[in-house]
């Protein structure tokens, strides 16, 4: 899974009735959020994720005290899919993901391609990965052990005030096999190369978490400022936003996300439109990089960070890309299939994430 899975296998899509008349996922709140009933809880754990490799027994000890919780271990996409389908049959309505971004990516793909009774479950995401970027935005606060204990205590006693965070989910088509895959963060260009560098150099040195992400960001910012094209070779792409004609661009960084914060709290998107996907491109010939980037990674418009100077950011509904270079979805690395043509990114629906 995280750090070990580099492809999602084809999963057969089952059409369901969980979409409303507008084509969006039904998001009616379940009764247990108001305390009327108790949720049926399922936990998917990846014991090989960055946060679980050491100390997974502590998770098992916590769960052993709550016999009514269904717990499944899953370290690859097939196991995740099997667990999700089992939980669907059992009527689980609160699904806890104890794994990293790659595990969440596999869970989202399984959820959106599996028949589910009534509505999709609410997700509770633990910070159990190497970076846990998704969980830091929409998951439970604190360490995975404290967060899991807090959630299970609430489920038993009803004490506490839960809340729900909603986010759109990215649907990526044309990547792997015939079926779409789902996630929350897409990156190419320097982002793809940065993840490779982090996996091969930073993690092997024993550095993990947001510190590893920060060191990688610093390394690649220095390379970009120094116009080091060996470290960050420009990605030649053709892109179309919201149905416009394809246009060529040499990109330093390409990203699309439905998250509101990335690692270290950065939010490098500043579009003003109402689309569900944050999309940002920094061209390889971007000007004043050292001066423009500090404000742009915080989501603040800058007179230096304008489209004519190489900085493009919009909130869009659909992105189409033609590219030969690699890309990432939630930390998992992919190479485009030249036989499949363009990649298509759009919103695949909404998820609800549990907060306590």
UniProtKB/TrEMBL annotation:
Matching InterPro entries: ATP-NAD_kinase_N (IPR017438), Diacylglycerol_kinase_cat_dom (IPR001206), NAD/diacylglycerol_kinase_sf (IPR016064)
Superkingdom field: Bacteria
Pfam families found in the cross-reference section: DAGK_cat
GO molecular function term, any single one: kinase activity
Residue span(s) of domain DAGKc: 36-140
SMART domains assigned to the protein according to its UniProt record, in alphabetical order: DAGKc
Family matches, as SUPFAM superfamilies: NAD kinase/diacylglycerol kinase-like
Protein name: DAGKc domain-containing protein
Organism expressing this protein natively: Desulfoglaeba alkanexedens ALDC
Source organism phylogeny: Bacteria, Pseudomonadati, Thermodesulfobacteriota, Syntrophobacteria, Syntrophobacterales
